[in-house]
Amino acid sequence: MQTNKDLANFIWSVADLLRGDYKQSEYGKVILPFTVLRRLDCVLAKTKQKVLDKHQAIKVMLKGIIIVVAVLLQNRNWSKK
Which of these, 27, 36, 59, 73, could form a disulfide with 22 (CB 3.0-4.6 Å)? Predict the structure, then answer.
């Protein structure tokens, strides 16, 4: 089990690797967002598959609705009376 200190040391070791590509004042701007994204990924890992499944179901449902609307609009009489 990693402690907070171990994680902090790991994060800063990665930051040290980036020093060549970024100015010292800038690499904190890179490390912090990726740290937050990784934390969110870990926190949401338990529900990730459920969310992906729900997303796929909604995507399929919306595709069906779009097709129905397209057919209804295509068959509508657009001529003025």
Answer: 27
Sequence ranges of the domains in the chain: 4-74
Going by C-alpha positions, the residue among 53, 1, 55, 10 that lies closest to residue 34 is: 10
**Is 27 within 8 Å of 15 (Cβ atoms)?**
yes
Burial profile 22-61: b = 16 or more Cβ within 10 angstroms, e = fewer: eeeeebeeeeeeeeeeeeeeeeeeeeeeeeeeeeeeeeee
